[in-house]
Amino acid sequence: MKQYELERVLPEEIEKRSFEIITQELGEKKLEPENELVIKRVIHTSADFEYADNLIFSPHAVEIALKAIKEGVQIITDTNMGKAGINKAALKRLNCAVDCYMADEDVAEYAKKNETTRACASMDKASNLPKDCIFAIGNAPTALVRLYELIKEGKIRPRLIIGVPVGFVNVVQSKEMILSLEGIPYIVARGRKGGSNVAAAIVNALLYQV
Amino acid sequence: MKQYELERVLPEEIEKRSFEIITQELGEKKLEPENELVIKRVIHTSADFEYADNLIFSPHAVEIALKAIKEGVQIITDTNMGKAGINKAALKRLNCAVDCYMADEDVAEYAKKNETTRACASMDKASNLPKDCIFAIGNAPTALVRLYELIKEGKIRPRLIIGVPVGFVNVVQSKEMILSLEGIPYIVARGRKGGSNVAAAIVNALLYQV
């Protein structure tokens, strides 16, 4: 086969075919059935099989998240890119919503006044919401650290934390802080890897199961 | 050190510190000086050092791209997520613009009428633009295949193709098609890896150099 001979797959079957390839290449690797679709969708979005080992789920995190989605939960992201990657039709169908406060003027002002980052200020803003939310953090470790503090102070109680920032400074540590929490559901990509695309893929994998 | 002891880095110095860590971990690895900032920013955005080997640059692709940016080039992405990841302040400062046609009604209609995908139809729409563009394709291999066809038919002449779709079906092949082109500047992530985040990181790395 010439390397650029295209595989004939109908557009609407590409995703199914991709998941077949992922399943095949995972081979004998055992995935927790409850977590399987999330793990496979993250591999689908990254072509990176390391996520089969990196993704850490608190007990019944998926089940708890699906319940929150059925109740029309609000999802907070730390980037507009993460927000853009979440399937809007699925959100609408499920009566859920997604917000990102990073570019809000009041967040910029609050951050300046309190000498903090906009990522932290976004989490403070979310702590004032009337209902508990799902947080999908794919970029800012400072957002995860602030969530951890707000939880410890009893000011916020996330329905789920998707903790998948990517990078080199305080990323590993911020995720370990979330992993140390008890009683808060989480899905965390242990280590340096992650990203807004991974955060969005996890949200979509949850939405598609409802 | 407890694993969640945070490194003290000022918010405005996190990126600098991240690049220092990347440089340090690349060690003796030789990068083409012209391509170095693009490669390092992709690693910064993915925490994946495979990109030090995966990213293939046509001769002087970066130099040619910087010239296009100085002239206020239009950038076309294949996802709104990719568009969302491109630094809007940098675009504005440089008089450049970014568009994504995927969600346009005329694109949906054209795709339906011509029994093609919206990704292909987006490229057809871009081929009617009055000026040559930079394409940043992080998701749809069909968009890359259509670009290849339009180039071969003499209907489009991109200033640069950023060819970094991610995935398992026709992704590798579509990138090899772009790599086979002569006289068209490209930056391609060979293999399965890539993504809208990678496409946006490459655009930003170019913008920041002007």
From TrEMBL, chains A, B:
One matching Pfam family: CbiC
Pathway participation: Cofactor biosynthesis; adenosylcobalamin biosynthesis
Domain Cobalamin biosynthesis precorrin-8X methylmutase CobH/CbiC stretches = 13-208
| A biological process from GO | cobalamin biosynthetic process
Molecular function as annotated in GO? precorrin-8X methylmutase activity
Gene3D superfamilies the record matches: Cobalamin biosynthesis CobH/CbiC, precorrin-8X methylmutase (3.40.50.10230)
Q: Which UniProt keywords apply?
A: Cobalamin biosynthesis, Isomerase
Family under the similarity heading? Belongs to the CobH/CbiC family.
Query: What is the recorded name of this protein?
Result: Precorrin-8X methylmutase
Q: Which organism is it from?
A: Lacrimispora algidixylanolytica
Phylogenetic placement of the source organism? Bacteria, Bacillati, Bacillota, Clostridia, Lachnospirales
